[in-house]
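FORM 7B: Structural annotation worksheet

SECTION A. Query
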Amino acid sequence: MDTPLGQARSSGSGEPLIGREQEIGRLQRVITARTHAEPWLLEITGEPGIGKTRLLTEWSGLAERAGLTVLSGRVPGADRRRPFALFRRPVVRALELPGAAASLAPEDRALLLRHFAEQADAGPEADRDGTAVGARPTDGERARLLRCIAGLLWTAADNRRRLTLCLDDLQWADDASVELLGHLLCRPRPRTSLILVCSVRPGQRSTALMASLADPDDAYRVERFRLGPLPRGAAAELLAREPTVERQRFLYEAGGGNPFYLRALTQSPGAFTPPDGTSPWGLSDEAVMTAGSALARELDPLDAVELDVLRAAAVLGEEFDPTHLAELTGRDAPSITRALDRLIAADLIRTDLTQGRNCSLRHPVLRAVVYQAAPHGWRRAAHARADRVLRESGAGPAQRAPHVARSAEAGDRDAVRLLTEAAEEMREANPAAAASWLSTALSLIREDGDGLRARLMTPLARSLGAIGHLRESRELLRRIPRPAGAPPTRSDTELVAFHAMVERHLGNYGQAESMLTAELALLSEDSVDSADADELSAPLRLELATVSLLRRTFPRSQELAAEVLRHATAGESRHLRMAATVRLAHSSAFAGDVPALLHRAREASALVDSTSDAELTAHLDTVSQLGWAEALAERHHDALRHTARGIRLAQDSGQLFVLPYLRLAHAYASVSVGRLTDALRSAAGAEEDAHRMKRPALHGFALALRAWATSLRDGPDVAAPTAERAVQEVGAGGRLWAVTAGVLAGVRLEQERPAECLELVRSAMEHDRHPGTAQSITPIWYALGARAAAALGDREEAAEWARRASLDAELLGLPGQRGHAALARVHSAPDPVGTLEEAVSGFRTGGLVLMECQARLLLARELTSHGPRDEPQPHVLEQAGEHANRAKSLAEASGARHLYRQAVDLQRRLGARRSRPAREAAKPLPDMSAREREIARMVSLGMSNNDIARALVVSPKTVEAHLTRIFRKAGVRSRVALVAALSHAGPEHVA
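SECTION B. Predicted structure
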């Protein structure tokens, strides 16, 4: 923020200047490079609030510590038109410097004192500190003052040899000050060292000021500082108190990286952006006061017409048509035009020629301050006039609704009708706006003899649910009356299913199950035709299938989904087939029925892929469940594709309630395939969603996934605090305890705290208390338990965990889970190397990139731990080196810095262990092609022909043909002999 120079803290005050290290370095180089023989011009430019004054203050501190005399000037706020007002304080200070005033003729010194330093009572001609600036000079006196001030400053610089003149906010300088500045820049005193430092807003400079700054005399050395937005990392310091990373990202983008706007937004907790996207931002009173105080220097000098125009612009919208200003203000067109020109010149209003004739206020924060500072009655009347203008121009309900909502009187049925129509128009595209307008419509109803209030409650409840206001939606749903004795209708059953979904998302599974079961019982009565009952019951059965899954009654869940699927197939209902198939896949994943899971996941994927965005938007809960089913089936790339599409559709349609579930599935799949940046972004988004929805368990789950990704990228010590917060958020009795506890257990194991790891695994595996664990991933937890028990020396418990992991992995048949089971058996296996090779193969086949990376690191260490340490086998070391190299490549591609460092460290240790005689004894093999060397390397890693074919995307027959030629060139007849020959030949033949 452009704070007054006298009020801003200096660089020695303890308040750091954030994000301007490069600029500070340049300033320090200027101090180091200055000489006594030349003047300098340092120009600091940038948007309002970007930090020009703060950087100028930093320069003052640097200069003072370097022994320079600092003279600071800023345009007084009381009257910017007083001649030479910018130079008043520098002149007063220069007159106090020894020798400077003595160089002036007595009459010149008297003139300066009379004009600048006389004290008087505060009045119309006094500055805010009570110092009078004297009467306005005549033209002759003005010219004489200019020469005297310039002479005084050059003499002070010449006498002191260490003088810097700091001039802030030059865009507000009076004409005489601009003329004097031009004189200093165009007529420097020879061999006099003056460092002139100026800050100015580029969009508000006068022509004369621009010319002076752009073309100073050649004697000046010039440095120009163009301040842009703070880097994201630096801005994070200002946003450190925000509850989520995603909230920080949102505020950074909303504030454009501008420190002033960022500080204003951090003082407005919660959502300050309006749901309709057109109304002014709702800032807190504290934010308005703080921002208003800083903006007062720009707003206070406005006359009545300019202020009316600015307020009217704030009412009209982020972009507004200036032809509407006369109607809103009641002013004549010439007055409006003149005021608009002055506001544009002052950079309070901006025009964009590429966007036609529309204008906008400089920033939404400025608009909010202007809007909220306007009298309430004036705002209501202005909104009413804006609605009239829009109505007469043929605007639709959605365009008029923001103004009607802010101007309608209680009992206005026309306003209620318009707001209802606007809400229906925006229900799918912007449910937040629909909810806002429906809430206003409800508040306007006074007499309700026709049941209008009840009719509005249903769409309002749906809109509130869609945007994640689940508790408010539930309260409305409970109040919606239902005719007694009437048979259920489609709208009745769909509303009950929606209500149950809201209860489910709030964690009230029993309540959801009871309402669904009761409604299904009503449909089974004789008053409802059986064909109609099948159709009406479908949404109820689908929701009950999901609730049953969460309550771990998998047979019932599958039976309900299967019933819907049979009905949908017979009736050719595509969306019901899709929804039922996804629920069958999801329940199969939790039940551990992998064949059914894979079959249904493929079928559901085809149905979703052939559904248009417009159709799929209404079924995003289904997309979320499919994403999780595919992730648990190790179809990670399908999960990423579907959840990314779901996230896009949810954001476009404003369905915020489903966003955290989609983002969590996307984060899980992203970590699995080594896309750590994507995982962290999705987890951060889910954190913000869950925080906004007040769902601590979901927030904890998002934190756990972020901790998982962080542990792989930055190491367990960095991830531990986030993982600990996740466990606290979920709580030991929560449904998501197993996942969060498992993540913290993995972190503790990497921190070499196996006892804590084992305790967490035991807790996570108590299925009766924590029913949220999917059977298809239990080997992950068992492997952690086995490794922790082995680290504690408890071989018996380690063997039991390994047995359970192997049993479940064999039943599941998923390659990634077999990899985890192999990890669990390493410490009890007679052949640890072979077991780790099995783990590598399983993770590679399952696409678990970073688990493959970790397994290869373990395998490389295990290989080098066998055999005499003083005589390491060269071929074993080469094989270990290949695994370390592959692990490094996987870690580097994934951005897993922690694993990358481990791989590099392992490579160094392997290189040190390889004996010099062994290196010198390496014998060359006959020349092989690049593809033959690649296949030979894969053979040395223990890969089968099928493994090699999959890796190279060729057929097994092609691999066999290459091997035949490799055997012939190497003079061997078997794979074992080839590995031995390669180990003696040296790594260059398989690199």
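SECTION C. Observations
Residues 1-14, 119-134, 916-922 have pLDDT under 50 and may be disordered. The first helix runs from residue 21 to 33.

SECTION D. Sign-off
Analyst initials: ____
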